[in-house]
Amino acid sequence: MQRFSRIVAPIGAMALAIGLSAASAPAAVSASAQVSNPAGLQAASVTGSQTYIVLYKANGVSGASLSAVQAAGGTVVQTYPQIGVAIVRSDRAGFDAALRSADSAVQGAASTAGFAVAVEDDNSGAAADAASAPVEPLVPAPGNDPLSGLQWDMDQIQSPAARAITGGSPSVVVGDIDTGLDYTHPDLAANVDFAKSVSCVGGVPDQNPAAWMDKNGHGTHTAGTIAAAKNDIGMVGVAPNVKIAGIKAGNDDGFFFPEAVVCAFMWAGSNGIQVTNNSYFADPWLFNCKNDPGQRAIWEAERRAIKFAQNNGTTIVAAEGNQSDDLAHPTQDWTSPDDTTAVIRDITNACAVVPVEVPGVIGVTANGNKLFKSYYSSYGLGTADVVAPGGDRRFQLTPAATNGRVLSTWPSAAPCAPALTVTDGAARYCYLQGTSMASPHVAGVAALIVSTGITNPGTVASRINNTADPIACPADMSVYANFPALDGGAPQVCQGGAGYNSFNGHGQVNALRAVGG
Predict the structure, then answer these.
(1) Which run of H or E residues covers position 450?
(2) Environment class of residue 449 by beta-carbon count within 10 Å: exposed (0-12), middle (13-18) or buried (19+)?
(3) What does DSSP say about strands 332-333 and 275-278: parallel, antiparallel, or unpaired?
(4) Roughly how many angstroms between the first and final C-alpha of the chain, as a whole number?
(5) What is the pLDDT along the chain (517 residues), one digit of tens a residue?
(6) pTM
(7) How many alpha carbons fall within 13 Å on the CB side of residue 11?
């Protein structure tokens, strides 16, 4: 995660919605309909088409609206009646305008073409209103695995001590919304939940394991930090007893498109996934501006999907980003769209980063082994909840963190620089840095908390915040002088006191205190 966890990306398709093809009868779909595909319908192939997110004014997608899509030259790929969203494909020029004109129920429609951002990590040199659930006996996972001595990050958040109390429950599933995961990795295989894993890439949910296999590496890395097993192989994750579901929303090149992000959160909320990790920014643009009609439609669709997951008991943890930006006071966006030619544009607080700036999402900044914010990490009052180890190869090298980066699981086929590669038998690991690496530490702690019976997302977030170790703003800000915001060039400024500030939120996440130790 160089600039961000930049698997940042727009989105791929979803796995829980009702799949309707052009040949399907356009029956009304109510907001109470389940996200499912009971008829096993396949999405129609539309050669040369673009994908659109269609946002309706009310929850539910009526039969008349489905007919309007077809009449305007579109094919419905997926519908999410619970949140009033449809994913549509069309090869008609101006389809979005034609649909808005034809159907008064449409609040907005936007093409997702070209709205992607790539991963840039550093590889160079339960019901929401239920506050608790039945508590299962805590199952400890004490001790070390062969590479535990390289896991300075786990020691820093007191993860080994927490594991001596509980390694989490196998009834808890963390959905890692990322580039998939390598389910054959020796340190992950035993903990993979195949029944709840899916690919959303392309707009249509696909549970074939080959579809959600990670060929990029990023998703496997974040998954290992969360849930690498305590099995005498390699390393140990924060919550080695929980299950991990790969929810592939980023393609093999590390690009996420909006239809995939919507799909991913709807899948999580509909399949009983208690926690998701989100080490990416998902929008057509790094900053999605709600005063732009197209971006507003995508922002609102993603916000509704995230809210749906939260209302269904999913705690959502997200990386803050690698732009060195103050997300609370953005001035310019120089990054977007970064799959083509970036367009410099002035922005305000009307522009936000998804998912980290969506209400209720736990935002995570990154630090290194010397306990100050990493030079690249974005931050912001109101967006940063806690800080966690993400690494810092420039300013925070120590005897424990000799290269400053975070070690985690890595696919055998994905490239990792030789100097950053570690093996234990057939198992392969890679060192990376970024807020992408910080976020899964917090997701793992959230899984431990849920394992103790605390399941309400708001209560989980409060537990994480209230048990964090406060860290004040740095007394010496000189390390940040040469690393202004990548978007706009503003100098980095830390605001707030020791109890809460823009760099560290409520403090560094503490796994031991979070589980009552």
Answers:
(1) helix 435-451
(2) buried
(3) unpaired
(4) 31
(5) 333 333 432 222 222 222 222 222 333 333 333 333 322 323 334 446 899 999 999 999 999 999 999 999 999 999 999 999 999 999 999 999 999 999 999 999 999 876 565 555 665 544 443 445 555 678 999 999 999 999 999 999 999 999 999 999 999 999 999 999 999 999 999 999 999 999 999 878 999 999 999 999 999 999 999 999 999 999 999 999 999 999 999 988 888 889 999 999 999 999 999 999 999 976 455 666 777 777 888 889 999 999 999 999 999 999 999 999 999 988 766 666 555 566 776 666 777 888 999 999 999 999 999 999 999 999 999 999 999 999 999 999 999 999 999 999 999 999 999 999 999 999 999 999 999 999 999 999 999 999 999 999 999 999 999 999 999 999 999 999 999 998 889 999 999 999 999 999 999 999 999 999 8
(6) 0.89
(7) 36
What is the distance between the alpha carbons of residues 4 and 372, in angstroms, rounded to a whole number? 17
- Asked if the bond preceding 355 is cis, omega within 30° of 0, the reply is yes
Q: How many CB atoms lie within 10 A of CB 178?
A: 35
Question: Beta strand pairing status for 351-352 and 288-289?
Answer: antiparallel
Helix (H, G, I), strand (E, B) or coil at 471: coil
366 φ/ψ angles, rounded to the nearest 5 degrees? -115, 145
**Residue 388 tokens, joined:** 């966690």
User: Residue 53: helix, strand or coil by DSSP?
Assistant: strand
What is the token pair recorded at 67?
């007919």
List the one residue out of 221, 168, 289 whose CA is nearest residue 435.
221
Q: For residue 52, list its beta bridge partners.
A: 88, 111
Are the CB atoms for 267 and 203 separated by under 8 Å? no
Tokens of 217: 């590496």
What's CA 425's distance to the chain center, in Å?
30
- Are 116 and 337 in contact by the 8 Å Cβ rule? The answer is yes
Place of tokens 């919605």: 17
Handedness of CA 225, 227, 232, 233 (dihedral sign): negative
Segments of 81-139 assigned E as strands: 85-90, 106-111
Measure the CA angle with vertex 167, ends 156 and 356; round to 5°. 60
Say how far apart CA 317 and CA 412 lie, in whole Å. Answer: 27
Return the structure tokens found at 335. 């990054």
Query: Coil, helix or strand for 54?
Result: strand
61 pairs with which residues across the strands? 29
Three-state SS across 292-344? CHHHHHHHHHHHHHHHHHHHCCCEEEEECCCCCCECCCCCEECCCCCCCCCCC
Q: Can you say whether the dihedral through the CA atoms of 6, 8, 12, 18 is positive or negative?
A: positive
Task: Identify any residues that bridge with 429 across adjacent strands, giving them in sequence order.
Answer: 409, 422
Which residues make Cβ contacts (< 8 Å) with residue 463, sequence separation at least 6? 449, 454, 514
Q: Enter the tokens of residue 14.
A: 């979803």
Torsion of CA 49, 52, 58, 63, to 10 degrees: 10
Q: In Å, what is the CA distance from 464 to each residue of 208, 446, 454?
A: 35, 7, 11
